[in-house]
Amino acid sequence: MSHIIHLLGPHLNVRLMLKQLVIADKEAGTEKHVPVEDISALVCASPSAVFSAGALRALAESHVPVLICDEQFQPAALTLPYYRATDTDLIRAQAAWTPEFQDAAFRHIITAKVRGQGALLDGHAADALRAIAERCAAGEYRGTDQPGPGKSLARVTASRRALLHSDTPAACESRSARLYWHRFLPPLVAQLGTSERGRIPGTRLGVNGMLDYGYAILRSAVLRALACRGFIAALGLHHTSRAGTHALADDLMEPLRPFIDQALRDYITESKAPEMKGWMKAAANVLLQTVPMRGGQVRLINAIDFYVQGFATHVLKPAARPTFAIPLIGEKPCS
Length: 335
Fold this sequence. Notes:
Strand content: 5-15%
Shape: globular
CATH topology of the largest domain: Four Helix Bundle (Hemerythrin (Met), subunit A)
Number of strands: 10
CATH superfamily of the largest domain: CRISPR-associated endonuclease Cas1, C-terminal domain
CATH class of the largest domain: Mainly Alpha
Low-confidence stretches: 140-156
Distance between the termini: 28 Å
Strand order of the largest sheet: 1-5-7-8
Helix content: 40-55%
Number of helices: 11
Number of domains: 2
């Protein structure tokens, strides 16, 4: 059984005893024992929690990501196992990725992302996103995102005109994002009562802050799976690798974002007084929901492991058209 552990109390002590994580609440005088092997992730928002070295070591050895949050319940740090190669062939193949390989793999990933976004909308917007996904997959998108009434292509800059007709994964992702957030975000902003005007990462407040927190949970799960397979997370397909980043995790988590979007919409819609502390638990529990994968139903955190495993197989034996399965909202896995 997999557990997402949340540490929210002000005076917690976490130690290891007989392969179990012992969480002691000094104020309440209680202790909770959880086998380390049953833990999928640990989220700490306790302002003064104390971890023993043995507890941190056991969590790292079991590939359990530990997400440390600040006083505003926003992710501040993430602990992962020290990098160790489990497959040197995989590392060599990753280091030798060609632009053609990166483009094909990222196209497959973005196609899945746009399909997932389309599943969360309805009507014309859903149809438009499905069309973008189909053309992105085929690599021949020519776009319907034309200038508005009274404008002509002659009055559009050369770079803008190129984007309108581009079939690159990045252009398709950008085109779909404008449509998706224009339809998806406003109802949530209205229900939460904030003044947000669009999707702006890093604001740490309102719907945007909640989305960022949820995406951090997904990112930690993807990093866990990458660490288990022996990938170098800093070497990505599309996202720029720079100091302190995990570009490959940012690439692979793209089609998983709609799972958080759907969960946040449900949380804000169904909660009488939605707030960050309540959303923290709802967001982490997204990893425990069941999704279709490998002909059956599995928890999302296990589906992510299968997804990364399939991607690893593709890295070692690349095909011109990638077929590794990606868990999706509302339909069969992309394959």
